[in-house]
Amino acid sequence: MTYFIDRRPNAKHKSAVNRQRFLERYRKHIKRSVEEAVNRRSITDMERGEKVSIPTKDISEPVFQHGPGGARQIVSPGNKEFLEGDKIRRPSGQGGGDGAGEGGASNKGEGDDEFAFTLSREEFLEFVFDGLELPHLQRKPLKSLEEIKMVRAGLARDGVPSRISITRSMREAYARRIAMRAPIKRALKEAQEALAAEERKDPVLRNPARIVELKAEIERLEKRIEAVPFIDTYDLRYHQLAAQPQPSSQAVMFCVMDVSGSMTQNHKDIAKRFFLLLYLFLEKHYEKVELVFVRHHTAAREVNEEEFFYSRETGGTIVSSALNLVNNIIDKRYPAGQWNLYVAQASDGDNWDDDSNICRDLLVKKLMPQLQYYAYVEITPHEHQSLWHEYETVAEQFSERFAMRQIVDAGDIYPVFRELFKRRLSQEQ
């Protein structure tokens, strides 16, 4: 059996292997603490690490103890409460005994606080986004500009030293040595046999000159065999790489946020936290996902990341302006045949009276046939308005690719986010 031992040094004498085992063993407890941390964080500190706590009773190790049976005599130094023959009552409660974890004050007993430790940024985000993915992500067919992957394409006599094939080079060298030595070895064997035959003759019939000639020939042939190099430049073989076009899994996420006057500052903060979670999720798990930020009130604009999260622009509400802009951007820059298209929209549900029907038609006729997934979150504690009801019609028609959820307060952000982007068992490849 082969054993692999990780002897890589760890910073400050810490054991990375033991830390990973600990995180995996208490994953459920850590994940619960991480969810609570996400709900209480502000926009600006969403991606830093986190100090989490685990109840001490949950990390206790099993131990062997003596059973209650048998007669034992115990001497307790410093005992002032009991005399010989007194029965000692078993301590009540759990954890550290009397006074530990109780609601009221106590003059005796000890206890332990919860075990606390700090997760790094990477560890924190790993727990935040565990089990999430972009739904229905597909590899698109080959197009003119596609993802290129370098693959091995056989062997060649020329190449860089880093790509040398040692096994093939040694095989070529061995074959060359056999081929070059074979005729010399045959000649050597013949000379050795002739010398042996000459030396076996009667001394009277033996030819001394012939013996000297054969010995010289044998020495010459042995030197020729030794002169054959172990490996030659001719033997070297190198792995060749060729550019092979690959189906592309590139994707683009459109982040659409309502910034109209009906969106209060609290609503906007919730929407920003939702989109910040989405931004961190895509940044951590996907290399080829582009982000397009769209803000809208009566008019929609494509903006950069800074303006999307921090601009103070406001106005009336026409949601169809944002959907039209998304459709135009797709037509110009992101053909559906080459890109996986996603849209995440956040709004309070308020819209111009006659515009909700237009939004429904835009989704059904233009956007949804091209999109992989559309996620709509409505941030409101009140009854749904016309936009939600029109979107329900779209959800019925595109049930697997259109999802809509309601967020009432900040505590709903993370559960809703996980529900929208949870890993599907029937994920298309």
UniProtKB/TrEMBL annotation:
Pfam family, one: DUF444
Residue segments, region Disordered: 83-112
Extent of Gly residues compositional bias: 93-106
Top-rank lineage group of the source organism: Bacteria
Record-linked NCBIfam families: PRK05325.1-2, PRK05325.1-3
Similarity section: Belongs to the UPF0229 family.
Protein name as it appears in the record: UPF0229 protein HZS79_15790
Organism from which the protein derives: Vreelandella zhaodongensis (Halomonas zhaodongensis)
Lineage: Bacteria, Pseudomonadati, Pseudomonadota, Gammaproteobacteria, Oceanospirillales
